Amino acid sequence: MTSEIASALIPFLFSMGAGYFAGRIKQGALPLSSINTMLVDYALPFALFLYTAKMQRASLAQHAVLIAVLIGVMLVPYFASLLVSRAVFKSDLAHAAVRAVTIGMPNFASVGLPLLRAVYGPESDLTVAIAVTAGAVVMSPAALILLERARPAAPASSNEFQGTDGLLAKALRNTFLKPVVLAPIAGVLASVCGWTLPDLLSQSLNIIGSTTAGLALFSTGLVLAAQPFKLDAQAGFGVLLSNVVQPLIALVLVSLLGVPKAIAGQAVLLAAIPCGSFGILFGLSYGVRDTSAGTTLVASSLLSAVTLSGTIVLLGHL
Q1: Which tens digits make up the pLDDT trace of 28-82?
Q2: What fold characterizes domain 2-317?
């Protein structure tokens, strides 16, 4: 069991550590925005399209219940964080959105594939692909819509309805034109239609798409290095939601929905993955820097060495 845990956790901790070390050494000289653009607009969309386009239609149907579990796992902490940030900590909408997505969307893209492969083998790739796709389709709009709504108000001479229905329509349009949202939707459509990707196209997309895990982990380390660390009640609440509440939600949902044991274990382990940096990266693209989200990301990543180990041990006894 110790060897299994080490092989699952050490590679992703090392990659994040490398990014953190590079960020501290370069003191902000590394172009994080360019790396973010490469990751969010190219590498991750290419990988998502490949994963989803290669799914079998039968597999999609069999994993429908998994999608429901993952959506619950993400949205419950997302709305809990959003509500507490706005009602208790009196945060503005943009900062609350960054915090909620940071907490609600685990680092599926970076940690999921190496972690689940180490524990469950290559057959877990489809589960990871579904998780990444669900995160992109559900949580990316959840972040982008609120960030669009929180943009500075338009000049008074413009359409006065820009702040209500017009702004929401613009937010939805901008959200679903993002490559990270379009790519998995296109891949699912290709799978449902039974279209087989040409080998040359797969190989071409995979050259960039295969860099996703390493690039995402490295960029997470860069983000960690750039974050001011201020452990307060907001950050503590976020870590509690991410590292403890999310896997418990998954455990309850897989039990209630009767998810098969193998897939149930994978769902719980995915839910135990620490916070991802996409909420923070989305925020940076809108000029929003949230210290609490950064602290939550750092603390959740560090604590995950303990919580992931405990989850793996627990699943081994179930």
Answers
A1: 667 777 887 888 789 888 988 888 888 777 666 667 889 899 999 999 999 999 9
A2: Na+/H+ antiporter like fold (1.20.1530)
Rounded distance, CA 138 to CA 134, Å? Answer: 6
**Whole-number percent of the chain with pLDDT over 90:** 30
In this structure, how many other beta carbons lie within 10 angstroms of the beta carbon of residue 233? 11
Kindly write down the DSSP assignment for every residue of 195-250, as one continuous string: PPPPHHHHHHHHHHHTTHHHHHHHHHHHHHHH------HHHHHHHHIIIIIHHHHH
Cα angle: 185, vertex 64, 108; to 5 degrees: 65
Three-state DSSP class for residue 182: helix
- pLDDT at site 1: 60
Tell me the pTM: 0.80
Q: At 197, which amino acid appears?
A: L
The Cα–Cα gap between 295 and 115 comes to: 23
Q: Is the dihedral of CA 92, 97, 99, 100 positive or negative?
A: positive
Structure tokens given for 110? 């970076």
List, for residues 190-248, the tens digit of each pLDDT value.
988 888 899 999 999 999 988 887 887 788 788 778 777 888 899 999 999 999 999 99
**Alpha carbons within 13 A on the beta-carbon side of 61:** 4
Q: Which positions ≥6 away from 229 have C-beta within 8 Å?
A: 294, 295, 298
Output the DSSP codes for 284-317: HHTT---HHHHHHHHHHHHHHHHHHHHHHHHHHH
Other C-beta atoms closer than 10 Å to the C-beta of 22 total 15
- Residue 159 has a pLDDT of 45
